[in-house]
C-alpha cells in the first residue's frame, strides 16, 4: 500500500489497573502486526482515556507513555461515564488519525477482527460496526437484559444496530460528523447511525472479561437504556396522548351505558354523572398533557440542534 492510513485505538478506562498492562501489550502487538503488513501508518497510536479512575490506572498509563511513544493518554478531571470517555478519546484522536477504533479496556471484544475493520475501511466504508454473533460467555441475566434493551429501543423507534456496542471503526470524516452532534445526553449507539456514511458490519464472538470486574452495574445499564430512549424518541409522549384518546372513548361508552342504566332505574342517584365525569375529565386531561408534550417534543428536538445533513459526495465540472 502506498500511503497506509493512521489508525488510533481509543480505550476508555475506569479503574482498570488489573487489565491495563496486558491490554496495552496486546494492542501494541496488534499495531506492530498491522505495521508489518503495511496496513497502517507508523503514526498509528493507542490512546487511553482515564475516566476519573480511583486506582492506579492513570499512573500505569503515564508509565506506558514514557516507555513507548505508541501509547498516548488523556485524563478526564472526573468520572464522566463510559460514553463521555469514548467521545473524549474519539474527539482527541480525530485531529491526528484517519480512522479510529473504540474498544473496551477489558478486551472482551475480539481484537482479531481489527484487520477486517481496517480492510472494510479501505473498501470505502466510513463506519464499521462490530456486532456480537453469540453471547455464550455472558451470564443469562446480562444476555437477557442486553437483548431486551435492544428490542425495547426498537419498539421506541430508535435506530440502532442490533447487538452492537461501542466497538467500531470510524473514519476521520465520520468523526467530524460526530463532532457536530452537540447533545449532552450522549448515546453513541443511537447517534452514529444518524451520520449515515457508507458503513458495514463485522461479526465477532465476545469473550469474558479476563480480569477485574464489570464497571457497568445494573444501575448504569438502566441509566443508559433510559438515556437511549429519552434522547432519541418522543414516543413515550405520544403514548400519553393515545391513552388520553382511549380513556375519552371509554368515557363516551360509559356515558351511553350509564344513561341506559339510569333510564332502567337500577342506579344510585348521582352515580351516572360521577362515572361520566371521572372518565371524561381523566381522558381530556391526559390528552391535554399529550398535546403539551407534543410541543415539548418539538422544543426538545430543536434544542438538540442536530446537524441536518452530511454531504457524502459533490460532483462538479
Ligand atoms: N468505563 C468508563 N467509565 C465508566 C464505566 C466504564 O470509562 O464510568 C469503561 C471501562 O473501563 C471499560 C468500558 O467502559 O473499558 C466498558 O466497561 P465494562 O467492561 O465494565 O462493561 P461491560 O463489558 O461489563 O458491559
Ligand atoms: Mg467489559
Automatic annotation (TrEMBL):
The keyword ATP-binding is annotated on this UniProt entry: no
Domain Glycosyltransferase 2-like: 9-176
Bilayer-crossing regions: 239-260, 272-296
Coiled coil stretches, renumbered: 17-44
Keywords: Coiled coil, Glycosyltransferase, Membrane, Transferase, Transmembrane, Transmembrane helix
Signal peptide stretch: none
Keyword Glycosyltransferase set for record: yes
GO molecular function: glycosyltransferase activity
Membrane topology summary: Multi-pass membrane protein
One Pfam family matching this protein: Glycos_transf_2
Principal location class: membrane
Cellular component terms (Gene Ontology): plasma membrane
Subcellular location: Membrane
Protein's recorded name: Glycosyltransferase family 2 protein
Native source organism of the sequence: Eubacterium callanderi
